[in-house]
Amino acid sequence: MSEQSSGQQAPPGPAGGSAGRYQRSTNGLIGALLVTLLVIGGYVAFRALNRDNPEMRPTSVDYLAAVQGAQQGGFDVVYPPSLPSGWIANTVHFTPGDRPAWGIGMLTDAGRFAGVRQEDASLDDLLHTYVDEDPSEGQKTRIDSELGSTWRSFSDSGGDHAYATDLGDDVVLVYGSASPEDLRDLAARLTTAKR
Question: Which residue ranges does UniProt annotate as crossing the membrane (predicted)?
């Protein structure tokens, strides 16, 4: 007996015009999303563990070349001829003109900041700009330097320190978050010698 004679029809196949059906549910969608998130998370974790992260180091600047340029312009800048071991100079600032201003920013071997600022400005203005709005003045300090041996000392509540002395009409400020010993060492190195 044939299929036609029994009255039964075969279910339509892919070519029969009726699309195949599958179950759609919220649980199935959530499961698919979780699997996708796990795959992405695994990939991100794999990349994080196997990636070489470059160590970020501050860029060093040739502050001695800047010293030479400023001196050629007729300005006697204050600078350290050498830095303590492990220190780098990472910024130089020079404003020429009738009231020139000069500055060098450095990082110590411990990553702390130390700066030198020379400017024809009031000490209070320099302290407010580079140290604190209301720094505490300490005792005068003896630092054997070409610039002079008596320096005024300052500190703030955040742990910054500064030493200041006069050089002609200019104020020289050595300041930063570096230790007082490091700042005194920096001040002792300062010179205006021609390069």
Answer: 29-49
Ranges of residues in the chain with a pLDDT under 70 are 1-24, 51-57
Instruction: For residues 193 and 171, give the distance between their C-alpha atoms in angstroms, rounded to a whole number.
Output: 17
**pLDDT, tens digit, 9 for 90 and up, residues 152-175:** 999 998 899 999 999 999 999 999
Architecture of domain 63-189: 3-Layer(aba) Sandwich (3.40)
- Domain spans, the chain: 16-50, 63-189
